[in-house]
Design a protein that fits this description.
The complex is a heterodimer. Chain A is mostly helical. Chain A has a single domain, classed as MetI-like fold. Chain A has 13 helices and no strands. By secondary structure, chain B is of the alpha/beta class. Chain B has one domain: Rossmann fold (3-Layer(aba) Sandwich), CATH 3.40.50.300. Chain B is built from 13 helices and 13 strands. In chain B, the strands form three sheets. An eight-stranded mixed sheet of chain B has the order 7-8-9-3-10-11-13-12, sandwiched between helices. Chain B has a three-stranded antiparallel sheet with strand order 2-1-4, with helices on one face. A two-stranded antiparallel sheet of chain B has the order 5-6. In chain B, a hairpin with a 2-residue loop joins strand 10 and strand 11. The radius of gyration of chain B is 22 Å and the shape is globular. The chains are: A mainly alpha, B alpha/beta. The interface between A and B is medium-sized, with 14 and 22 residues.
Chain lengths: 310, 346
């Protein structure tokens, strides 16, 4: 009862807030949000709405390979956007591919966030040698391009895991690789905010009460440094989706039997100059649209949460 | 603490006795810079050997200019800093022999409450940590009581700190401090961020609570009017040292230390008594490189060779404690003579 009214309360507050107003008044942001929402929903529900299961070899027909999109003379309504070299329906492959891309992106960002926020709060709050150690590691990692770090992690995992195990764990490995490559940004931002918060008097008050250091970090500092994390998280989601596509394009990502958007682009790349343009262009457009929308959302969020720009 | 001081104050119920309390801060540049620039360590002597004693139920105020170390003393006593040297002897609570419970009220009511927590959770935190209430229902009741006690309503617990004004927030801070059932409250400039009218309300609330619970206050302020209103005993700090402390009436009516006189002479006089007001002359020297001998000697009109050489010790003189060579030797003139002398110096 009480919690229900609290929920309604916070919902009303949200629709009254500056953030909702700034969202409504920016058409680009609304469009980006709609595109992102449609793509995410399609990705989630693809097993139920896709015309074909492109991961199931039994449902593929090699005779249908290289069918052009439906508006060509050779096109058939069964394959709206044509088929690839395996006879996979492009539309279904896109839906399933986006599903993998978005899933990998989300979880990779969560991993970066978890590592980065934890280390950032600890570095900022504890300070001293711990701070120096964590931040120098972050600095060193910043000097390498993120994709290089991801390739390195991926390479190490391939080296230490037997091939069969690696094939089973390929998604986990990619998520870890992308997650590890993204943490320093979170750590830096969170450390900065923690340095500000830890000298505020509410933290001192908690110390006077005699709370443990870990409790103060978790229940007092953490909730107050999460604002910027949301913004970096959104922008990093776009970067992680691109990173996964890059890895898959380079052939170290998800296998061709269960293609993500990046894998689809790599497959299509082979046929770009032989006239079957749809195999590469549709996944490319989908990826570009997805990353653009998420980026626009992230930009808007950054501006909306920045009190100096209000 | 000097011998006679101990003697005079012993036998009374001390809440806190502080001896030679010292806190240095290392503000050196990083090691590499020090090596390259060939500079040594830089140490700020924020608090440099402070002695005083606080009796049960009194309000001991510390006053002084910015940077004199009064807030550092507050934080040392509340346990936020470890002393570099010296000792703090806390009394025991009741018969249990448990250490006195210290809570703190802070200066900035906009920073002292966690903005993401509901007021009820903020006030309930000490109760939870010290296990003062057996279950959630009694805890909620207790929080309501506390909020009503500080002049808010129990239903305010559902709100967030940003829904309150500065004075109301300071009331919430006080409720949180009371929730821990303290014996001793350290108040670090609790009213300096508030409007004058609200200041009076908060001070009166603090006085009422003191009477009701027999609380002891350490009150830090730079506002002498506020200090006069609330204190029983007042200590004056200068550059990390306590220069004079006494009962409020003694100190305000008959200050002995030249610095205390300088501070009191600068108080605006609403009665327009025509008494010439002396502005505080000179500036506080850097606590990184304090003057040798008596820290006040560069600004003191009565400074002599001995003041430049020798650090004065705290002595009991006519019902107060002063650390001044001039007072000890009886060469500081009476206050009336002081005013024109100071006036001439500008």
């Amino acid at each position: 009862m009480l919690s229900q009214s609290r929920f309604a309360d916070s919902l009303r507050r949200f629709f009254d807030s500056d953030i909702w107003y700034s969202f409504k008044s920016s058409r680009v942001t609304v469009a980006a949000a709609i595109v992102t929402a449609v793509m995410i929903l399609t990705a989630i529900f693809s097993p139920w709405i896709a015309p074909q299961n492109p991961f199931d070899p039994a449902s593929l027909d090699l005779m249908d390979a290289f069918t052009p999109p439906v508006w060509y003379e050779d096109g058939v309504p069964k394959y709206l956007l044509g088929t690839d070299d395996q006879g996979r329906d492009m539309l279904s492959a896109l839906m399933y591919g986006a599903r993998i891309s978005i899933f990998v992106g989300f979880v990779a960002v969560l991993v970066s966030m978890l590592i980065g926020v934890t280390l950032g709060v600890i570095a900022g709050y504890v300070g001293g040698a711990v701070d120096a150690l964590i931040m120098r590691i972050a600095d060193i990692q910043f000097t390498f391009p993120a994709i290089l770090v991801a390739l390195l992690v991926d390479g190490i995992m391939r080296g230490i895991l037997p091939k069969e195990v690696h094939d089973d764990l390929v998604l986990v490995v990619i998520i870890l690789a992308l997650g590890v490559s993204g943490w320093p940004q979170f750590a830096r931002t969170v450390r900065g905010s923690t340095l500000v918060e830890k000298n505020k008097e509410y933290v001192l008050a908690a110390r006077v009460i005699g709370l443990k250091r870990s409790t103060i970090m978790l229940s007092h500092v953490l909730p107050n440094v999460l604002g910027p994390v949301l913004v970096i998280g959104t922008i990093n989601l776009a970067i992680a989706i691109l990173g996964e596509a890059t890895l898959s394009f380079l052939g170290v990502g998800v296998p061709p039997t269960e293609p993500s958007l990046g894998t689809l682009i790599r497959i299509g790349n082979d046929f770009l100059f032989s006239g079957e343009w749809w195999i590469v262009i549709f996944p490319g457009l989908t990826l570009a649209l997805l990353v653009l929308s998420v980026n626009l959302l992230g930009d808007w969020l950054r501006d909306a949460l920045n009190p100096k720009l209000r | 603490m000097s011998e006679d001081l101990n003697r005079e104050r012993d036998g009374e119920a001390f809440v806190l006795r502080v001896e030679g309390l010292t806190r240095y801060f290392d503000v050196s540049p990083p090691w590499l810079n020090r090596v390259i620039e060939r500079t040594g360590k830089r140490i700020v002597r924020a608090v440099d050997g402070v002695d005083f004693a606080i009796r049960k139920g009194e309000t001991f105020s510390l006053v002084g200019e910015s940077g004199c170390g009064k807030s550092t003393v507050a934080r040392l006593i509340s346990g936020l800093y470890e002393p570099s040297a010296g000792a703090m002897h806390f009394g025991r609570r009741g018969d249990s022999g448990e250490k006195l419970r210290v809570q703190m009220i802070f200066q900035d009511p906009y920073a002292s409450l966690n903005p993401r927590w509901r007021v009820a959770d903020i006030v309930a935190e000490p109760i939870r940590v010290y296990n003062l209430c057996p279950d959630a229902a009694s805890r909620r009741r207790r929080v309501g009581e506390l909020l009503e006690q500080v002049g808010l309503s129990a239903s305010d617990g559902e709100k967030f700190p940003h829904e309150f004004s500065g004075g109301q927030r300071q009331r919430i801070s006080i409720a949180r401090a009371l929730a821990g059932e303290p014996d001793f409250l350290v108040c670090d400039e609790p009213t300096s961020a508030l409007d004058v009218s609200v200041q009076a309300q908060i001070l009166n609330l603090m006085k009422d609570l003191q009477r009701e619970y027999g609380l002891t206050y350490l009150f830090i302020s730079h506002d002498l009017a506020v200090v006069y209103h609330i204190s029983t005993t007042v200590g004056v700090m200068y550059l990390g040292r306590l220069v004079e402390w006494a009962e409020k009436k003694t100190l305000f009516s008959d200050p002995r230390h030249p610095y205390t006189r300088m501070l009191l002479a600068a108080i605006p006089d609403l009665g327009m008594s025509g008494k010439p007001r002396t502005p505080v002359a000179g500036e506080v020297p850097s606590p990184i490189n304090p003057p040798p001998g008596c820290a006040f000697h560069p600004r003191c009109p009565f400074a002599e060779e001995r003041c430049r050489r020798e650090v004065p010790q705290m002595r009991s003189v006519g019902g107060r404690y002063v650390s001044c060579h001039g007072v000890e030797e009886g060469r500081i003139p009476d206050e009336d003579a002081l005013v024109p002398m100071n006036g001439e110096r500008q």
